[in-house]
Amino acid sequence: MASIVITGGEPLNGEVWISGAKNAVLPILAASLLADGPMEIGNVPHLHDVTTTMELLGQMGVELIVDDKMRIHADSRPANRHYAPYDLVKTMRASILVLGPMVARFGEAVVSLPGGCAIGSRPVDQHIRGLQALGADISVENGYIHAKAKRLKGTRIVMDLVTVTGTENIMMAAALAHGTTVIENAAQEPEVVDLANCLNAMGAKIEGAGSNTLVIEGVERLNGGRYDVLPDRIETGTFLVAGAMTGGRVLAKRARPSTLDAVLVKLEEAGAHINSGDDFIEVDMRGNRPKAVNITTAPYPAFPTDMQAQFTALNAVAEGVGVITETVFENRFMHVQELKRLGADIRVEGKSAIIRGVPRMTAAPVMATDLRASASLVLAGLVAEGETQVDRIYHIDRGYECIEEKLGVLGAKIRRLPS
Ligand SMILES: CC(=O)N[C@H]1[C@@H](OP(=O)(O)OP(=O)(O)OC[C@H]2O[C@@H](n3ccc(=O)[nH]c3=O)[C@H](O)[C@@H]2O)O[C@H](CO)[C@@H](O)[C@@H]1O
Ligand SMILES: C=C(OP(=O)(O)O)C(=O)O
C-alpha cells in the first residue's frame, strides 16, 4: 500500500492552485444521468472518487470522454443499465447520488445500500423517504435499494435532519417530476448550490438554493450543457491550516473565499493574518505559533465537519487548550489516536476532543483511517520533528488532487512511497 513520508519543520511559503470541489463534481456527474443531451463539465479535480464515479456511470452505459483540458464530456442517452453494484458503492458512498436521477429519468433504479464507514453509520433513510414522497415505489432487498416510478410527482418534503447528499438526491429527482416540489430543512452547503446552478443551466427550475427551502418546478426534460465546478473549500481550508500550523504564509489561488467564512474566523482566532480577494485567500502566521481554538461542527454555514480533523491537528501544536465538538458524525475522531502517536495531548470525552497544545510533536509511523483523518496526519507530519510515514494513503487520493506535489511547491519535504 502506498504511503507518504514527510520530514517536518519547514514553514510553508508560497502559492497553491485550488482544484474543483470533490463534493460538487460527484453530484454534478450523477446529474448527467438526467440530461437528454451531452454535458461538458470543467474544473474537474483528478481524484479517485471521480474515477470511481466515471466507472459507475460507464457501467450504466453513459458515454464518457476526458479531453486534454481534463473536461469531462458525458452523454447519458445510451445509458441502459440502471444498476449501481455493491463493489463500486462500497468504495464510495457518494454512489448513492445516482439513485434519484435514475428513477426520475429511467423510471427504475437498483442501487446497493452504501453501509457505514469509518466516520459513522451514515444511513440513507432520508434519501429513501424523500423519493417515496415523490411517488417512487421503494423496497430494500438483499442489500439493494430497488426504486420504481412511472413519473415522479412534486410534493412538499420536510427533511428530518439536514443531509447534503439527501437534499441533492431529492433535488435531482424533483427536477424531472411532474409539478412543484418544496424541500424544507434542506442543506445549504455551497456544493448543493453548485449542483442547483448546474441543473438550472441544464434547464431545471430550482429556486432557493443556499437557503433551507428549495422550490423545484419539475420540467419535462433537461438538456445537457457546459458547467464548471466550484473550487474546493475543504482543500482550500486544508492548505490554509498547513500554512498556519507551520508558522508560514500560504496563498490559495482560484479559491472561493465566501464559502469559507466559518473556517477563516477560526484561523484569525488562531492568530493568522488573512487577506482575501474575489478568488484568493492568503494566510500569514509570520513565524508565530497558533493559539488554540474551540470549534463545534454543524451543517453550513457553521463550521464544516470536513475541516474538523485538520483543526484538531492545528490545536495539537497550538498554545493553550482547545475543545473540538463534533455534532455531525458520531465517530469522527479516528485521527486522535494517530495524532497521539506523534506526541499530541488529546482526550476524547463523548462528542468532544480536549486538546492541550504541545510545543513540538515528534515523527512516528501513522495510519490513515479516512479522508480528512489522512489530511490531519499529513498536516501533523509537516510540523513533527523527524520523518513521519503516513500509511493507507489511498484515503487521501479520494479527495486531494496531487497533495504531495502541491505541498512540495509550498516548500514541504514530502514524498510518496509506492506500494
Ligand atoms: C459526497 C459528499 O457531499 N459528502 C459530504 C456529505 O456527506 P453526506 O451527504 O453523506 O452527509 P449527510 O449530510 O447526509 O450527513 C449528515 C448526518 O445525517 C445523517 N443522515 C444522513 C442521511 C440520512 O438519510 N440519514 C441520516 O441519518 C448522517 O449519518 C450524518 O450523521 O456531507 C457531509 C456533511 O457535511 C460531509 O462530511 C461529506 O463530505
Ligand atoms: C466524508 C467525506 O466524504 P464522503 O462523504 O465522500 O465520504 C469528506 O469529504 O470528508
State the main characteristics.
single chain, 419 residues, alpha/beta, four-stranded mixed β-sheet, binds uridine-diphosphate-N-acetylglucosamine, binds phosphoenolpyruvate, UDP-N-acetylglucosamine 1-carboxyvinyltransferase, cell wall biogenesis/degradation, UDP_GlcNAc_COvinyl_MurA, pyruvate, MurA_subfamily
Would you report the number of β strands?
24
Low-confidence regions = none
Count helical runs: 14
End-to-end Cα distance, whole Å, is 4 Å
Strand content: 15-25%
Biggest pleated sheet: 4 strands, mixed
Spatial ordering of strands, largest sheet: 22-23-1-24
**Rounded mean pLDDT score:** 97
The set of bound ligands, ions and cofactors reads: uridine-diphosphate-N-acetylglucosamine, phosphoenolpyruvate
Query: Into which percent range does the helicity of residues fall?
Result: 25-40%
Structural class: alpha/beta
Oligomer: single chain
Measured on Cα atoms, how large is the radius of gyration? Answer: 21 Å
Task: Map the helices and strands.
Layout: E1 3-7, E2 13-17, H1 22-31, E3 39-42, H2 48-60, E4 63-66, E5 72-75, E6 83-84, H3 86-89, H4 99-106, E7 108-112, H5 125-133, E8 137-141, E9 144-148, E10 156-158, H6 164-175, E11 180-184, H7 190-201, E12 205-207, E13 213-217, E14 225-228, H8 233-245, E15 249-253, H9 261-269, E16 273-276, E17 280-284, E18 295-296, H10 308-316, E19 321-325, H11 334-341, E20 345-349, E21 352-356, E22 365-367, H12 371-383, E23 387-391, H13 394-397, H14 403-409, E24 413-417
Parallel strand pairs: 2-15, 3-14, 6-7, 10-11, 18-19, 22-23
Antiparallel strand pairs: 1-23, 1-24, 3-5, 4-5, 7-9, 8-9, 11-13, 12-13, 15-17, 16-17, 19-21, 20-21
Helix pairs in contact: 1-2, 1-7, 4-6, 5-6, 6-7, 8-10, 8-12, 10-12, 11-12
This protein binds uridine-diphosphate-N-acetylglucosamine (UD1) and phosphoenolpyruvate (PEP).
